[in-house]
Write a structure and sequence with these properties.
There is one protein chain. The chain is an alpha+beta fold and 292 residues long. 20% of the residues are buried. It folds into two domains: 102 residues, no CATH class; 138 residues, Immunoglobulin-like. 41% of the residues lie in helices and 20% in strands. It has five helices and twelve strands. Helix 2 runs antiparallel to helix 3. Strands 5-4-3-7-10 form a five-stranded mixed beta sheet. It has a five-stranded mixed beta sheet with strand order 6-12-11-8-9.
Length: 292
């Protein structure tokens, strides 16, 4: 009769299986440790930004609330898994041992069916309540500035109601930011000229898709001066990674000064006959303010 090779009293196959089990059990813990360590070393946060606009802050709070049941479920599942693996492993049991069977335990089966369902309902209802705020202007606040945003491969065009436009192409968003006043509710009407894009500045608000032939809406109200970075969040072609966004919030006095400068530039700039007049799009932006 052929015998399996042994190391001491343990078969080689059993030793390999046991080592692999230890590796798979330790891998998640090692991965979490490496993720947290890399995040600290690279100044990368595992949570979304706290938000400089009310709707952005609401998304941050939503993340924290959802994290509580997620962490509880994760710890519970991993704890039960480790208990089963170590307590009921075959090498620690007598020959012929059969673990306790729970098949047909109606209260237990109802509990582990209903409880996850209630958790998912809670998360779903709360998420929809918060995320829909991105698209609906607060009822107690009037729109202070309404802009029309045109996305294209691979840049953005912001039409201001004062009659001028700010355009960005790829990485030059740093030189041509979207400038808005602080303490003012800004409403964006977003569409696309070619393919689907998505306007996203994590510190300010959530993602809003730019769809050809259709208008989506979002808003924000930034309370302090600063510059925030965003990007297109929808894979839109080979130049997707360069489709950057910059939003600069300035004081109302600085914004009025900047608007005057842009209006002077618009008056002196020549308009190509083949291009769509900026004034017609700006009229859309001006009319949009009244509808919000």
């Amino acid at each position: 009769m052929a015998h399996r090779p042994r190391i001491g009293a343990e078969p080689i196959l059993g030793l390999v299986i046991r080592r692999w089990w230890q590796f798979f059990l330790a891998a998640p813990l090692v991965g979490i440790g490496l993720t947290l360590g890399a995040g600290q070393a690279l100044a990368i946060s595992i949570t979304p930004p706290s938000g400089v606009s009310p709707n952005g802050n609401a998304i941050y709070n939503l993340y924290l609330i959802i994290s509580i049941p997620a962490i509880v479920v994760f710890v519970l599942v991993e704890a039960l898994l480790l208990i089963c693996v170590f307590r009921f492993r075959r090498s620690a049991q007598p020959p012929g041992y059969v673990p306790p069977q729970f098949h047909g335990n109606r209260p237990l089966e109802i509990t582990w069916t209903v409880l996850p369902f209630l958790i998912l309902v809670f998360i779903g209802v709360l998420s929809f309540r918060v995320l829909q705020q991105d698209f609906v202007r607060p009822s107690n606040a009037a729109t202070g500035l309404a802009l029309v945003v045109y996305a294209h491969q691979y840049g953005w065009e912001y039409d201001y109601p004062q009659g001028f436009s700010v355009q960005t192409e790829g990485l030059n968003a740093v030189q041509n930011p979207l400038v808005v006043p602080t303490g003012t509710l800004v409403r964006l009407q977003i569409t696309s000229k070619d393919v689907i894009h998505s306007w996203w500045v994590p510190d300010i608000t959530g993602k809003t898709d730019a769809v050809p032939g259709y208008y989506n809406y979002t808003w924000f109200k930034i309370s302090k001066p600063g510059v925030w970075r965003g990007e297109c969040a929808e894979l839109c072609g080979s130049g997707h990674s360069s489709m950057q966004i910059r939003v600069e919030a300035v004081s109302p006095a600085q914004f009025r000064k900047w608007v005057a400068e842009q209006e002077a530039k618009a008056k002196t700039a020549s308009v190509s006959p083949a291009s769509r007049p900026v004034e017609s799009r700006s009229a859309v932006a001006a009319a949009t303010a009244a509808s919000f």
